[in-house]
Specification:
alpha/beta, Rossmann fold, Hypothetical protein af1432, 2 domains, about 55% helix, elongated, disordered N terminus
């Protein structure tokens, strides 16, 4: 059984904003080469925020790197030696794109300001000599934007966590129907994402494959237990009922917009490279990529798991069978890669919890 830690779950937008405000006292980085300006700005914001200072752009970048998790907002002068404020903010934006950036400038040149907005992700510029109240208002507005963006990130994280936990609950309910397939969906998912990662699949594809892996057998909920848990060989009629589960799976997730992208992997994981699979007898590269990956992982887990009608096969026997069926049942390129990484697959089989936490894309997004 996979045990993934449960983090604190915030229940409302109000809770999120409150938590952001209470737990994250704002830190402002002020960069100016004139000591008098630095002192004036420090006095202006004393008692309201944590203040960090730097006397030039290079020092400012170093300070930002050293305090990357604390800084909410940067105020920088424009005309400075070593590195102008616009260049400093451009570099700062590469390090911390979400930090709010305000430029102090004695120039109202439209070209300079436009360039700063485009390159630095500038929130606002304030003309010098500045009115302290005007600057304070700009900073308040900037921090409000920072808080809102942070709250939005927390909301999205919590929605992903809820989505992930819901999928896991459904998967667990399915696996509980048959004690011999307990943990099957999670192991198939694990082998699938290991293979996909070793093939350098991008993160969005990894997330889709992981979700499809978790849900690939969800349609078996509609299969009678007399068939699902039958200890002996299925009759032709019983097997035809069993073969409906990919279509059942597709129907179950069809109404959930976020799952539309994973539907092909769920529906077609029993297709064969030679076209002799089901439900649509797709062949070769007409079979969705995610389904081709899950098909190999699904077969490997079926062979290496004890079932009511036979004992588990050894890892080496299962790998030999996958190698044998490359080009017939399985995509030959994917099957070859699976065989190449068999040591990783074997290690994951022996320690699935550790490897799932290591390879999961969905879990890392909510951690």
């Amino acid at each position: 059984m996979f045990n993934v830690k449960n983090d604190f779950f915030l229940n409302s937008v109000g809770d999120l904003i409150s938590a952001t405000s209470v737990n994250n006292e704002h830190t402002i980085l002020i960069v100016d080469d004139e000591i008098n300006n630095l002192q004036l700005l420090k006095r202006t914001f004393r008692g309201k925020y944590n203040i960090l200072t730097a006397s030039n752009g290079l020092e400012g970048l170093e300070t930002l790197k050293n305090n990357i998790n604390d800084v909410s907002l940067i105020v920088s002068d424009h005309k400075m030696p070593i590195m102008e404020g616009t260049k400093f903010l451009e570099e700062a934006n590469k390090i911390a794109p979400d930090v709010i950036k305000i430029l102090l400038t004695g120039f109202s040149d439209v070209e300079i300001i436009t360039d700063a907005v485009n390159k630095c992700n500038l929130f606002q510029y304030v003309l010098k000599p500045f009115n302290p109240e005007e600057l304070q208002e700009a900073i308040r507005n900037g921090l409000n934007k920072f808080d809102l963006a942070s709250s939005k990130s927390l909301i999205l994280k919590d929605l992903k966590e809820l989505f992930y936990k819901t999928i896991k609950s459904i998967t667990s309910a399915l696996d509980a129907k048959d004690p011999y397939t307990h943990g099957h969906s999670m192991r198939v998912t694990l082998y699938s994402i290991i293979l996909a990662k070793e093939l350098n699949a991008p993160n969005n594809q990894l997330e889709s494959i992981e979700t499809a892996g978790l849900l690939h057998d969800i349609g078996k909920i509609a299969i009678p237990e007399s068939i699902l848990c039958k200890p002996g060989k299925l009759t032709d009629d019983e097997f035809n009922v069993m073969k409906t589960h990919p279509i059942n799976s597709e129907r179950l997730i069809a109404s959930i917009e976020r799952l539309h992208a994973v539907s092909p992997g769920v529906k077609h994981h029993h297709e064969r490279w030679d076209g002799k699979g089901y439900p649509d007898h797709l062949a070769g590269e007409d079979i969705p990529y995610s389904a081709r990956i899950i098909a190999i992982a699904d077969t490997y887990d079926a062979m290496t798991s004890t079932r009511s009608y036979r004992k588990a096969l050894d890892h080496e026997v299962a790998i030999a069978e996958i190698e044998k069926c490359a080009g017939a049942q399985f995509d030959p390129v994917l099957a070859k890669k699976f065989v190449e990484i068999q040591d990783i697959i074997k290690a994951a089989k022996d320690n699935p919890e550790e490897y799932y936490l290591k390879y999961s894309t969905l879990y890392k997004e909510i951690s």
